[in-house]
Specification:
heterodimer, A: alpha+beta, 2 domains, 7 helices, B: mainly alpha, about 75% helix, about 0% strand
Amino acid sequence: MTRGRVACFRGPLIADSWQAMAGPRKHGTLRCGGFSMSDQTVSGPTGLEPAAAPRPVLLTSRPVERPSTWRAWWYLVRLSVQRQSRSHQMVWVALILLGLTATIILLNTAAGRWGMNHYRSPRGSGPRFDQYLQSIQGFAMACRGRRPRWPSGRLAAKLEGVAGTLGLLHILQLDRVRRVHELSVAGLEHVVRDGCAGRRARIAGVYFGC
Amino acid sequence: MRWAASANRGSLLWLLTRPLPRSSIYLAKFVALLPWSLGLNLGGFAILCLAAGAPGRKALTLYWPAVLFGSLAFCSLFHLMGACFRRAAIVSLVYSFFLETILGNMPGYMKRISISFYTRCLMFDEAGSLGVAPPQRPSIYLPVDGPTAVWVLVGMTLTFLLIGTVVFARTEYQDLT
């Protein structure tokens, strides 16, 4: 008794690989000539049977499914997906890079740094955007009266801050905001110079809540 | 890219002896790489966007088509490279880091031969309603509109697949054992 797989070319041949591609594996008995073959064993002639009698070729104990190219193609797709899943090294490199990037993004999210309020102008050394905003709001609060309250030097510093914000808005190409801002700053200058009167002052009042 | 791995493992010979047309083997390999590449690209993009909070969710809804079509085009191109070159991974890396980076940022029409240009155009088209414009002046960047970018990316994908099918069907692979 010999273990192994035997191919017989007298009948229709279904090799293991094609059988795997074309359909489910058939468990049964293959008889070819004087040999009787199964998935596990091959046995020789016993000598009790007449050798001259031709024996029919029996492939399986179940009806044979016709080989389908479409099914074979999908089997190849599935096999390729399984083989690519074994590429551990590249997959791990990709997942590590993804994890690193996700960590950086989570840190940015936790620090609230997705806006532009932490940007500085001049870059690296100047005040932050939110500090500019606070200075403008403080300026607007100070302009609530009819006459300017601040000395000229301090007023000039505040106006310089407003001018810096205008430059930033120009750099960022936020034209609509810049136009409103320019109009309002002109109104603020009018307020500082002449008191809260006139059209520009009213615009400034609307914009800054004066 | 998978062809080189198959050839190195000796499984390409097994594939070529199957009673399947070579074109169908090429397409099967392409379909098989899509779950991994799209999963990593789109899934990774979704993870990064969701990690970014509300702005990230908005970016995910805006930009996922660009990531999808760009990934398909790159997959098709790298699949073709795998069928054409023995050292496809090196060629693909050189292409990604040099050609896409340099040509994709050249002024004028030179950048239009890169895939990433159309991906960015698709992103800019989606974000146009939010006031986000291309980084340079339109006369320098010369972007295309969103539908054009989609059609170019889909056309690239199909063209690379067709070329790869023909190349794979006509190539004689030697020393596969």
